Amino acid sequence: MVIAFLRSWKTKWLLLSATPRLNPLSGFFPRRRFPANAAQLMVVEGESAFLEFDSYAYARALTSCIAGGEPFRGKAIHCHVLKKGGCLDLFCRNILLNFYVRFDLVSSAHRLFDEMPDRNMVSFVNLIQGHAKCGNFTEATVLLLRLHREGHELNHFVFTTALKLFIMMDLPEVGHCLHASICKLGHDNNSFVGASLIETYSCCGLVDDARGVFDSIKKDIVVWTGMVTCYSENECAYEAVLLFSEMMKEGLKPNNYTLTSLLKASVSLSSLDLGKSIHGCSVKSMYESDEYVGGALLDMYAKCGDIEDARLAFNMVPDCDVILWSFMIARYAQSDKNSEALDLFQRMVKSSVAPNEYSFSSVLQACANIGDLDLGGQVHCHVMKIGLLSDIFVANALMDVYAKCSDLESLHKIFHGLYHKNDVSWNTVIVGYVQLDLGDDALRLFKQMWDIGIQATQVTYSSALRACASGAAIELVGQIHSLVMKTPFKDDNVVSNSLVASYAKCGNIKYACKVFGLMKEHDIISWNALISGYAIHSLGTDALSVFRKMTEEGIKANGVTFVGLLSACSNMGLLDEGRSLFNSMTEDYSIEPSMEHYTCMVKLFGRSGHFDEAMKLIKEIPLQATVMVWRALLGACLIHKNVDLGMVCAEKVLEIEPQDELTCVLLSNLYAAGSWDNVSLIRSYMRNQNVKKEPGISWIEKQGEIHSFTAGDLSHPDKRVINAMLEWLNRKIRKSGYVPDFNVVLHDVGDELKKRLLWLHSERLALAFGLVSLPPGSPIRIIKNLRFCSDCHASFKLISKVAGRELIVRDMNRFHHFEDGICSCADYW
Ligand SMILES: [Zn+2]
Ligand SMILES: [Zn+2]
């Protein structure tokens, strides 16, 4: 972004810098000497001195205003001319015109032009340059046509001006059509025209044509620089360097543009050595503190070296302007060196450089990275004071801060207050919602964006897919998939990776595999998505074979890959494989195990009954073991009825999170397994500790619509049929041997009520709804926010048999595929 800004600036500057050289006036300035006494008079006696002035004296005075940057004195001279009723000649009127153009007073210049009794080519060129400089391209083009129509001379000034104009209008191909006329009128040997033609061809990407022009003209430093720039801008970095060495052999000294282009070439060649030698050249030619060279050096060091080298280059530029400051701050924020970015921003403000939209958006990125709401708010105030809140870059960066800090109110305020929202604004809010687990809101916004015709990007699609995956929205995943197929993103890796992950998370591992198979290229994220997909579906062997294939294709596994692999092993109880993978991860891949890796291993050891090994591993964890680890071991203790160790685990969890309801339930199950009746103890603990009961919620999708069910709440419009179905299921599975397990109910109520409460668990309500409303034979997919309760698990197994249906349930840990009375988790989760 900053570089793009630099570039547009550079083009503008190049045009301006070229102006003095190409200025038509310079060639037409009279050789006549100015009367010395008149000039002195003007300085010494002020305005009255003009009394004696003729056109040439005015011309001289106006030229000195241009050179000295004195717009007010120039205007005063014009006033004086008007007051005296004096009539300037064409030469002097052109200088006056040039004066107005130089100080960007184009409307005054145009008025003067219209009032001129006669005009020549110089008048036209002057005004065309003025309009071009201010972006009034239509006026500039109209004037160019008028110049031609009125029969003025088409000399090299006209052609260079026209070529520059078309480059500025982003229509270089129009400029390149002028080449024929240039040759016909014999200007093709002129080096001014040649330099402009090289630039035109460079913008069209026609490097060979540019070289043709270069070879046929007399070369000065501008022409050489033009050609070097053409090579470096058109991915011919090597040729740029070769041409530069030829230029040095000719004895020419590079200027700041030559050096800037060469530094760009070093970046394309990723050559730090080349970059350093160009740095040496710029030191020798005293350009190292030039702001353009300084900026290019920063860019080169940041991309080829490390950021500290860039910082040294930054420190070397004596008066850094806002672009360089912003660039450096942006670099720090992008490399996640946030305190450096914040520090630099403070220093920038202290050194009286006014921050612009780029500085603000970069410093806000740093605030978002560290999730510092307070600091973000302070920058927000600063932005408001300066009046940059309506700037789209700044507003988007601010929204990102608020989204990352979960401040939804401020996020909405900025989003709805933004008059012109672009795709980034929409994406920021959608991504924010997904991160805050507000999938429904994210999808609502996605639909809104679609309805009003904002072009969705890869970020939009992948975020919407992630939102679907957090709910049970498999049909929505399919719908978004078909939308994607109609866009250029159908082969995009980011979107395809999200499709793989979402299909897997929504319970359709077959489609996930299909999308993976159709992808042209697989990056590490694609492989990880498939491995994790297999892991949550308890397809451990498939996960391992995908890992083998990935290694064969030369993709290096990372920490996420091993989380997938180890959880696949722990879900399937693949002890040996898990053990050797864990060792290989630390030894062969030098990956430091994270808490997630430890949790998987503890789960695996616990599940296979190797409690000593599990405890040994927990002691080896360098940091304090988290709730996740202890809860995993507690689950294993429950399976193996290891009450003593289970109590230790529960104690550890409750030490860290005293209000964890899930542990209380597990503990109650464990006591029951050890035939201890300690439920009342747990109940009083829960009362004392004020244990928050997170309501169990289950989701099920019917024709693209999500229905949610909360435990104990049967307010669904179809409650009568659901109730009837529950009754029928209860009777059916009792006959198949179902005995309700009251240990999962921690309420102090009678057995009859406990029985009723069990049948009002959210997953059962969702299942009954699915059975009555989904077409027979189709699998029923349910998603639950908490852990699958053990009594529901037992009943689902029986229901899959008596109803002859495939039931797929995703709880907070994994998938359970029930078919014909068996669950894919083998009763371990
Ligand atoms: Zn249940
Ligand atoms: Zn299961």
Indicate the topology.
Blueprint (H helix, E strand, L loop, with lengths): L1 H21 L1 H5 L7 H10 L9 H14 L2 H13 L6 H13 L3 H10 L5 H13 L3 H13 L6 H13 L3 H5 L1 H7 L6 H14 L2 H10 L4 H13 L3 H13 L6 H13 L3 H13 L6 H14 L2 H10 L5 H13 L3 H13 L6 H14 L2 H14 L5 H13 L3 H10 L5 H13 L3 H13 L6 H13 L3 H12 L7 H13 L3 H10 L5 H13 L3 H13 L6 H14 L2 H13 L7 H13 L3 H10 L6 H13 L3 H14 L4 H13 L5 H10 L8 E6 L2 E6 L8 H17 L15 H8 L3 H12 L6 E5 L5 H13 L4 E4 L4 E5 L2 E2 L6
Parallel strand pairs: 3-4
Antiparallel strand pairs: 1-2, 1-3, 4-5, 5-6
The site of one zinc ion has 5 residues, from loops.
GO molecular function: RNA binding; zinc ion binding
GO biological process, one term: RNA modification
Protein name: DYW domain-containing protein
What does this entry look like structurally?
Helix 25 runs parallel beside helix 27 (423-435). A six-stranded mixed sheet has the order 2-1-3-4-5-6, covered by helices on one side. The protein has 829 residues and is mainly alpha-helical. The protein starts with a helix and ends in a 6-residue tail after the last strand. The radius of gyration is 37 Å and the shape is elongated. Strand 1 and strand 2 (705-710) form a beta hairpin. It contains 46 helices and six strands. Among the domains are: 15-27 and 36-153; 697-823, no CATH class. The longest helix has 21 residues, at 2-22. Mean pLDDT is 85; it is low at 1-49. Bound molecules: zinc ion (2 copies). One zinc ion is lined by residues 793, 816, 823, 825, 829. InterPro entries: DYW_dom, E_motif, PPR_At4g14850-like_plant, PPR_rpt, TPR-like_helical_dom_sf. PPR repeats lie at residues 120-154, 220-254, 321-355, 422-456, 523-557. Keywords: Repeat. It holds the Pfam family E_motif. Residues 737-829 form the DYW domain.
